[in-house]
Structure prediction request, 251 residues.
Amino acid sequence: MKGMKTFESLAGRFQCPLCTQTPRVLAEFFSLQNSESDPRAAVLLELYFYTLQFCRDQKFSREQTSCFFSIVKETHQTCMETPLGNMDRCYSYFTELLMCHAARRPPFSIDLFNQEQVLQITEYVVNTYFRHFKLYKYAYTPQVRLDISLSYIGMEVPEESRDEETPPQDHSEGPSLAASEEEEKTAETVLVLESDTAPLKEYIRVQLNEEVSQLRSTVEGKLRENEENFSAQLATLEEQPVKKSAKGKRK
Prediction:
């Protein structure tokens, strides 16, 4: 396990059940002293603290505490690798790490936890970390925003409209003049929007007409082909009795 020797020294400092310096030592060890002002540091400090509390409640040894702490830390780092949803991958990685320390198959695995402890660890991690997986993902990964722009083939891309500088207005004539100017601006805005969407509407109408005409010609061609096939089959059936009657007369 990567980092296990590093955490063995940390795990040995929390064997005393009356130790009250756990949060402070964790903050110093992982550089989380700004947990009071940084919510991310506070959440991470809480995750580490309750992980050690679980190990203490289960009376894990120093090696078991170090191993389980490293598993939780590696699982959390895997969660932070991508802002996309990777819960299945994180859980598979967690179980893989746990199974590597639950069976004696050197040099691939070691029996550090028994079957009952494996069940207890799995239940604890599922009910604490994976139950709030999306919250950890939201807090520790950047948010992904998808911007979609549509471009139509055969249609020119409109140039970006530039805002023209408007001269300062003189409101000395009273509120009626200002109201009329606002109404004129509103009407101009509506006309500009309609003029901007008019080419798009015309393009869509032309494309739909072309598609409908092509579909109509295709359907008419298939109907004509089916009618010709039916006529040919009908003519074949009408010729068969004539041939049979001619053979009978010859006999």
User: Anything to note?
Assistant: The first strand starts at residue 102 and ends at 105. The radius of gyration is 38 Å. The chain is about 65% helix and 5% strand. Strands lie at 102-105, 109-111.
